[in-house]
Design a protein that fits this description.
479 residues, FAD/NAD(P)-binding domain, Polyamine Oxidase, Chain A, domain 2, protoporphyrinogen ix oxidase, domain 3, five-stranded parallel sheet, 20 strands, globular
Length: 479
């Protein structure tokens, strides 16, 4: 059997998980497989970027993952990182909203929630009616064959809860507009609660009975986790796999499908690299870059998929990490952080209080917070200068947390294209892309464009594509 070559475009967590899984599967299948990863940047990780600066550890992208994905746990074990995983401090169970210039904790206990003031009497009454709201009819009128996150929340919990609770949560996860994002694509577990139990509250009670230690929560199960040296630890560990080769500074400018020389073979692909005279040949390709980059590459081999991926909005998001000394830490209540509903005279979407989450993220006794700004609800943020962005983040953090001192540390990272927005056409987009890729043998799509934006889900998606690619190469004509 001749040697086969699999090329993976993108060395984020998804692309490297694909490379690792493909190499492992090839070894199990006794397939002579070369696995090459091409990455345009100078390091592995993509948006999983962990920056250590003079005693501060800043996550410029995803800051945590949930350990509720068995396949992801297998990936961690295979990468040798199980012992490096750390779980968030108990303080992370405390979450806050910023309303009327005050930090308001979101209690998990029903009685405390009812007396918290987060919802008014009518809002609480409407939310209490949720178990009696029927399931949504499959024939109900809606846009694009889907229902928005806000529409779902307003239908089941009432408009007040949708505005004050669900919309800020979507800002924190997607930096997106809950009225424009698809419920089944963006929050599939909430959709499943209604489908399986007919009610969110009934579903939450059922989950509590199954796992009483979690309390009454509609959120996903699992412990919030990271690694001792930050989220970039996983892509770095995967990139060090001796069975794969990662080539940095390699920008793929074009991807073409080779015509098979005869009916006994499947052809292959040619990849054109910036600055290289000769193209690279691959028997199979996994495109694991971001949606916009994948759209550019797929125009010549999967034009329908290219068009649908190009539709995905990825708004500008900025992360501004601020470190404070003195009594700043004692002035901020222990917790995960704060979300900010729109209309609160602040442009910050939310803040994460890293000092309370994991050890070693800030200097001893100091406070480290990360402010997130921009997203689809604030498209003008990308036009601010770096100085204007810093001033805005400092002002918002000072007002929200009541701090009376200037930060002693700042790290600023801007992502011109940040988080994919799974809009009301996303289900049809997945169907169209899947259907076309099935007609292009040897071509696979990973990344977070379609199947979930979380760090763990991206890793699982890549792992699955890597296994599929290796299995296909082991059985493809001409192998």
């Amino acid at each position: 059997m001749r040697s086969r070559r699999l090329i993976i475009i993108g060395a984020g967590v998804s692309g490297l998980a694909a490379a690792h899984a493909a190499a492992r599967t090839a070894a199990e299948r006794e397939l002579n497989l070369e696995v090459l990863v091409l990455e345009k940047e100078s390091q592995a990780g993509g948006k999983a970027l962990s920056l250590r600066r003079s005693g501060w550890l800043v996550e410029a992208g995803p800051g945590t993952f949930l350990d509720n994905e068995p396949e992801f746990q297998e990936l961690l074990a295979e990468a040798g990182l199980s012992e490096q995983r750390i779980t968030a401090d108990v303080a992370s169970k405390h979450r806050f909203l910023y309303r009327d210039r005050q930090l308001c904790e979101i209690p998990s206990h029903p009685l405390r929630f009812a007396t918290s003031g987060l919802l008014g009497p009518l809002g609480l009454l409407r939310m209490g009616m949720e178990p009696f709201i029927p399931r949504r009819s499959s024939g109900a009128p809606h846009s694009g064959g889907d229902e928005s996150v806000w529409g779902f929340a307003a239908r089941r919990l009432g408009r007040q809860a949708a505005d004050r609770l669900i919309a800020p949560m979507i800002l924190g996860v997607y930096a997106g507009d809950a009225r424009r994002l698809s419920l089944p694509a963006s929050l599939p577990r909430l959709a499943a609660l209604e489908e399986e139990h007919g009610s969110l509250i009934k579903g939450m009670i059922a989950k509590r009975r199954a796992a009483p230690e979690r309390g009454l929560s509609a959120g996903p199960s699992g412990e919030m986790s990271s690694f001792r040296d930050g989220m970039q630890s996983l892509p770095k560990a995967l990139a060090a796999d001796p069975r794969i080769t990662v080539r940095y500074g390699a920008t793929v400018e074009a991807l073409w499908k080779e015509q098979a020389p005869d009916l006994e073979k499947t052809g292959g692909f040619r990849l054109f690299i910036a600055g290289d005279h000769d193209p690279l040949f691959a028997d199979a390709v996994i495109v694991a870059g971001e949606a916009w980059a994948a759209a550019d590459l797929l125009q010549g081999v999967a034009p329908i998929s290219a068009g649908r991926l190009a539709e995905i909005e990825m708004p500008h998001v900025a992360v501004v990490a601020l470190g404070y000394d003195g009594d700043a830490l004692s002035r901020v209540p222990p917790g995960f952080g704060v979300l900010v509903p729109r209309g609160q005279d602040t442009r910050t979407l939310g803040c994460v209080w890293d000092s309370y989450l994991f050890p070693g993220r800030s200097r001893d006794g100091c406070l480290l917070v990360r402010a997130m700004l921009g997203g689809s609800v604030d498209p003008d943020l990308g036009g601010l200068s770096d100085d204007e962005l810093s001033a805005l983040a400092r002002r918002d953090v000072t007002e929200m947390l009541g701090l009376e001192r200037e930060p002693v540390f700042e790290e600023r990272v801007r992502w011109p294209r940040a988080i994919p927005q799974y809009d009301l056409q996303h289900s049809s987009r997945i169907e169209a892309v899947s259907a076309e890729l099935a007609t292009v043998p040897g071509l696979f799509l990973a990344g977070n464009s379609l199947e979930g934006v979380s760090f763990a889900r991206s890793g699982v998606t890549g792992r699955r594509r890597g296994i599929e690619a290796a299995e296909w190469l082991a059985t493809a004509p001409g192998a």
